[in-house]
Every structure is written in structure tokens, then in C-alpha cells.
Amino acid sequence: MSSSHLPPYPPPLSEDKLQELEGHAVDWALSHGLVVRAPAASVVDPNAPLVTHAPFALFPSPFPRRCYNQAVVLQPLFNTLVDVIAKDAEFLRSVMDSLSKVDDFTHQLYLIYKKVVEEGVAQNINLGLHRSDYLLHVPLDAPTDSEPVLQQVELNTIASSFSSLSNLAGDLHRYLYERTNFFNDPSLPSPDITSASLPVNSSIKTLAKGIAKAWELYASKSAVVVMVVQPGERNVFDQRWIEYMLFQNHGIRLIRKSLAELEREGRLEGGDRKLFIGSEEVAVTYFRAGYAPTDYPSEKEWAGRLLVERSKSVKCPNIAYHLVGTKKVQQILARPGLVEKFISDPSQAALLRSCFTGLYPLDDTPEGEAAAKRALEQPEGFVMKPQREGGGNNIYGEDIPQALKKMSVSERNAYILMDLIRPPPLKNFMVRQGALINSEVVSELGIYGLWVSEGSVVHLNEAGGHLLRTKASSSHEGGVAAGFAVLDSPLLV
Length: 493
Fold this sequence. Notes:
493 residues, globular
């Protein structure tokens, strides 16, 4: 699937057909829960439960089948890698001792980690609901018939969102195919859109499956799951589907609490430090908040996080898993021999490395100084990434020299430098708040991962469905919740 050999896409439909297709899509989305809360600026009555359809791509976006399959095969290996690193206290300390000195948010997380280790971990059940994100890459100097390769953008170990709405986006595209065939007449030059080219997604059920397994191992039938959420969350319906799947498929109750509410209402009981919210014992605490400094506006939120981490409740993620997801760990793993330190099977280590792009420190080491020099001289080939999640934090291209010149060497160490991934552009229509936007786009594939272990026993290690986010090719960032991208599904070619 080289960009130069792609047939015209999407199907060149008339304006009338596009409007008809959009009408089908918007109504289906609103009828089936593919929705988000309306932006605050558009709500006249703050008590009115107004929603709008989640932003989505009108057509599924072409994605190479071989790259999709590669990403699915990789996910259990990344699940294993996270767990092995999280258990290596010496390695985590070697990374965090220096990083925490230049990044206050990481410093606060690391303090919690050290307190938990010093007191003794109260729970040996580990629950990971990860997501590894990828872009296709074609180098600038590659021949025109070059096939794109899969390169990892990042590995998310906390609050991996859109598992529910991404499933519904795939269902939407399947409905449009079955109902209209996207009006893709055989006489048109666009590729066939077939049922076999639309992969089945199970992510609306799989995250609940992982949580349910951890709940089962906790072995208290009256215990609940707590989802830690941000106040005023617009993406609440993506989260609610997990709550409904837990209750519908597993008979497990879930309650929603903010970090501040956990601090105010939570308590630990007994020598095994069971977590209670009111009269409810908490078997699993699932974080959909806590990944950004803005989630901790006061000491109350930090105290709420520490309370949970000290408890017997199964954490998703626990503080060690959270630290493994930092960009600095991703960068260090790219060094020769580091993956092999944790993954003993040479073929598995090589497969993991096959998706790595160039990753470099920006510290005061010779490697870091050389990377900073390259970034100043050729900024268009790089992106600077801080230890942050949620979109809108990275520094790209011509903005890099200005940013670097303002930083001390120690401030630089809070960032990593990454080779810019260059995905082949495509065309698609994006639908946002009823508006149809024709744009050149790029797509980012995420594969969810489920991990449940108890001590040395692994109960669950598998891929758990996919997410495809599509954005205008002119946009650097890729977050749907942050307003940069739309939900999509892959058309495997």
C-alpha cells in the first residue's frame, strides 16, 4: 500500500450522495450511543443533558492488513514488557531518580512509588489495560513505490480511552456498508469496501473483561469497582459503556469518583489495607484520570491517589505501571540491549524493536548533546515529547529551536527527542458537530492490551481490540478528546 499506488479514495460521490450518507451516519451515531457531551460553550442550560455525536470519519480509512496484523501480534509482547519492567525496582529507580529532578509531576508520582515500596505492596494482582499507538511511516527519501512500515508513537499504560466509542465507530461503518455500500458503484475507481476488509472490533467488551478478571481474583463478591474520573468529563459515554458491560456481562457494580472524592470518602481498614468508599469495599480501582498535572489541582488529589496505591484494591494502573508508561522509559528501551534485558526470547525482542523509531535523550550525556545539536540544525525531522498524556503537549519542527534555546540542560532532560514519523496522506471526510469536512488525513492505529497476573501466574495476556483515530494531515496532535482527531475504523487493504 504505497501512497503513490493507492486508488482514488474515498469514493468520488456526488454532493447529494455525500449528504445522504452523512445523514445516515449522524442519526445512527446518535441512536447507538456514539456520542459525547456537548461543549460547554454550546450549552445554554447547564442542567440540560445535551449531547452531540462523537466526531467520526465518514468512510473507513485504508490501512495495510500486514501492518494491522503486526500490531495485533505485538500487543501481548508489550503487555509482558510493561509487567517485567514494573517489577524491576532497580531499573525504575535508575530512570526516575534523574527524571524526577527535572519534572515535578513525575517527581510526585515517584514519591508515591517509593512510599508504596517502602511500606510494602498490599496487592500482588496486576491489571494492565494498555494501548500501543502506531503510525505508518514512509521516509522522505524512499522510492515512490515503497511500502509504509509500522512505527510506534507511544505506549499508554493509564486511562487508555475510546475503547467503547471506537467499537461503535466500526459498527457505524459496517452499518453504512451493509445499508448503502457507501454508494461505491463498481464503475467508480475507488477500492472495494467489503465485509472482510472491515475487521471486527471487540474493544467495547474487552476492557470490562480484564477488569472482571481482576475483580474475580480479588474474591469478594460484594465488592465494587471504582472508576476514577475527571470532574465535568465530556467523554463520559465511552466510560459508561465499560460500566454497563461490567454489570450486563459480569454482574459487577461500578461507581464513579474523582480523586478528591476518594480522599474525602475513602479509608483503609485492617492490616491488609482494604479500601472502602462509604460501606462499599473496592476490589478494583480503574483510573480514567490522574495522568496529567491538571488532575491534581490540590494536595487532596495527591492524597487520594496515595490512599488508593497503599490499598489492597487492584489498581489499573498501579503506580509502577504508570511510571513505565513515561516517554523517558520508551526512549531508554530503544537503546541497544535494553529490550533484550527484559525479553529473553531473541525473536520476540526483535519483533518489538521492529516498530521502534529513532528515540534520543536530551540530557547532558554525549548522546543527549548530539541529539540537541541535530534538533537545532534539522528541526523539521524531529518532535520533542514531554512526560505528558492527553494531546497538545509536543513540540514540532520549526518550534523546536526556539524551545531548546529557552531551556537549561536540566530542563531539556524532561523531554525526549523522537524522529518525526511521516505517514502517507489519504483523503477522507470528517464529520464534526454535523459539519462535513473534506480533508487530506493521516490515521493512527491503537491496539488495546489486556494483562492480568497474580504473582508469577499470568491469567490474561492478549490484544483487546483496536482504535483508529484520523486527523487532518496538517495537524500534529492526534487526540480525539483534545479536539484534534475523529474516530475511524480501518479498511484493511
